[in-house]
Sequence to fold (294 residues):
Amino acid sequence: MSYHSRLSKAFKDVPSLPLTDQSRYILISDCHRGTGTIDDDFLKNQNLYFAALNDYYNSGYTYIELGDGDELWKNRRMQEITEIHSNVFWLMERFHKHNRLYMLYGNHDIVKKQYNFMQNKCRIKDYAQAPEFQSLLANLHFHSGIIMTDRETGKKIYLTHGHQIDFLNSVLWPLARFLVRYVWRFLEHVGFPDPTSAAKNNTHKEKSEKRLTKWAADHNRILIAGHTHRPMLGTPASPYFNTGSCVHPRCITCIEIQNRCFTLVKWTIDTREDRTLYVSRQVLAGPTCIDEYV
Fold:
């Protein structure tokens, strides 16, 4: 099966969401939440992520995570991840209770495609409430894709992680996971970048971006993905978007959809004139509206 076919297959039997003037969606990908060790790439940005997500919750956004939310190639046990980053999962539970949470799986958390994966994997103790474990994100299903439909124009927006364009990371993912878990995670500590990663290998990254861009152009579809960790706001001539990631050394990036328009933003630590630090939201590109893509 070609990468074209694998990517197209990701949008079969997936949820459909409406896009209206009142819609507010925040798209985030590639958090790679870990277990708090030196391999936990999310750890350095956990406060940025929590501050941003809390702001989006209070502003009425629906949260869509585009895969690789949790690092389940380097780590075996989801329970350890939920315990370390329990504040994040409690906040996601608030989105979930209000039907404002949608989750996709990527290659690094592809095991989440199992039915009710989180049912017994996301259990956290809240010592302020009760000493026993509580299950979070119950009955939450992880999807390969989501399709948004603009109510005014009928234009569709296709959301997926993007690993489908890579044979090793999609078809041979058990082999790729083995190599990451037992080989490359240790070699990276002495300076060898993981050649299987589109995020860490520039040649692989550019090849992935060309394939994602070609699929979007060939099908005349707006495609929003993650996987490469390189943020991008598409154009009418090249309607491929990328949310970026939450593991950049200095920031997290994401795509906001509001008023039927796309805005690429980053959240980072900034400094006021009195030298105090604060979490800053900065626009990287946009907004561009869906009417431009019709």
